Amino acid sequence: MIVAEPVSLGPGKVSVPDSPPTSYHEKDVEKDVLAREESASEDEAVVYIVDPEAERKLIRRLDIRIIPASMYIYVLCFLDRSNVGNAKILNADTGDSLAQSLHISNNEYNTALMVFFIAYAIFQVPSNYMLKKLYPSRWMAFLMTGWGGTTMILAAVKDLPSLTGVRFLLGAFEAGLFAGIVYFLTFWYKPRERSLRIALISACATLGGGFGGSIAFGVGRLNRAMGLEGWRWLVLIEGAPTCASAILVYFLFPDYPETVSWLSPTERELAINRIKGVASLGHSKIYWAQTKATLLDWRLWFHYLIFVAVSVPFSSISLFAPTIVAGLGFEGLDAQLFTVPPYAIGFVVTVVVAWICDRYEKWSWGAVASFIIASVSFFIQGAIAATAFKTRYGMLCIGSSFSYASIPPLLTWLTANLRSTSAITLAVALNVTLGTIGQIIGVYIYKGDEAPGYPTGHFTNAGALLVCTAVTLFLKVVYTRRNRHLTAGERPWRT
């Protein structure tokens, strides 16, 4: 057997082999690969000089092929996930809402929401593994078919058990999408290129919420058409495009730079080599030694804690925005329509914050600023009079916008401080998986008996965002201190 050796690039520099040595035992291979990948600095794995203009042209090509498709998929995902919030109150003035049709209480409704997140947590890590194993295009098409079909099946539910079962299935299929997309981007982009692109995709949650309110406003007029309540029409209309789009994703969505046909040989070489040492390679394998090291890395668990806390407002606002707006003096279909502005503003804020973070590579500071602004807005919502409708609506727009805006910088900061394909595969999935703890908490904080002020919900969101602020600042200190003790040529930690 031939042992793959590092290639000298000059004093103190070596290139990391694309594949591990094979002349000794598997455990030794894993340890060797782990040591090499952890010690590689950003420019150590680059074996040729990159032409900046060629790289800019390549990135534009990648953006055109990858980002719009990913945004579209995530819009469909969020529409199908959050339409239950619209369905809960759609046509309530005529007694035909989901809650009224199924004769369920607020607590029973919350239980149906909660099981979604249980499935979401269970299937997150396995889904990321399958994405790597089966190729992104195939796995995402499978997931889309699953959750689109499940959304349409929701139109047939008759009681709480059937609603709960369908929501569990929906969580199982949707579990792999967001973490999968974040992981997928690491095959194509450097850390400093990711935050804006993650923002454009994740901000589609706000677009999905806005579209959902607009669609519900229109679909509500179909109430009792062909004997179906408006909310049943809503899930049928929103689930069908997902199933149809899965076919296009299967055939057209790109997998890895190594496999796509629309890159020239020169572009393919550039796409692969420019991310070596700072991103995940499509042909790289997952090794147990790296996986174990990722599980035992205590600093990553503080990243996960931040995501748990920020998931509380993310979940609660996405699920209860129509209910909160209904408590601000808007009734009937108007309550659906007035959920649109908070989401539209959120899209703009999320993209702007991410652009600034990428421009200056200050992802942690962008997250901290977003946490503080959102926290203050939720404190104000909880403290002022329930009848101060205009102020509370304005604060809802600010709080939801900056809660969403904090997520892309957080994910970019995490992936920028991961050193191997195995670490990225596991850590991104674990991060989003553990975030479901916060999402489950978010299900229960807006209590029906506290309408229309909902102080518990607003104060809980504010407190969760303050926890995010404190832990983020702590991690900044940790990374700053680590950077003071780097050896020559060692890759610095992103603070």
What topology emerges from the helices and strands here?
Elements: E1 7-8, E2 14-15, H1 26-39, H2 52-89, H3 98-102, H4 106-122, H5 124-134, H6 136-153, H7 160-185, H8 194-202, H9 204-219, H10 230-252, H11 265-273, H12 288-296, H13 298-326, H14 333-337, H15 340-360, H16 363-383, H17 389-405, H18 407-416, H19 421-444, H20 455-483
Antiparallel strand pairs: 1-2
Helix pairs in contact: 2-6, 2-7, 2-8, 2-9, 2-10, 2-13, 4-7, 4-19, 5-6, 5-7, 5-19, 6-7, 6-10, 7-19, 8-15, 8-18, 9-15, 12-19, 13-17, 13-19, 13-20, 15-16, 15-17, 16-17, 16-18, 16-20
Describe the protein in words.
The chain is mostly helical and 495 residues long. It has a single domain (52-258, 265-483), classed as MFS general substrate transporter like domains (Growth Hormone, Chain: A), CATH 1.20.1250.20. The chain is built from 20 helices and 2 strands. It has a two-stranded antiparallel ribbon with strand order 1-2. A hairpin with a 5-residue loop joins strand 1 and strand 2 (14-15). Helix 5 (124-134) crosses helix 6 (136-153).
Number of helices: 20
Top CATH class: Mainly Alpha
Shape: globular
Which stretches of 5+ consecutive residues score pLDDT under 50? Answer: 1-47
**What's the SSE pattern?**
EEHHHHHHHHHHHHHHHHHHHH
CATH superfamily: MFS general substrate transporter like domains
The name of the CATH architecture is Up-down Bundle
**Which topology does CATH recognise?**
Growth Hormone, Chain: A
Q: How widely separated are the two ends? A: 42 Å
**Total number of β-strand segments?**
2
How many separate structural domains?
Answer: 1
Q: How much helicity do the residues have?
A: over 70%
Over all CA atoms, what is the radius of gyration? 23 Å
**Biggest sheet descriptor:** 2 strands, antiparallel
Class derived from helix and strand content = mainly alpha
* Fraction in beta strands: under 5%
**Mean of all residue-level pLDDT scores:** 85
Strand order of the largest sheet: 1-2
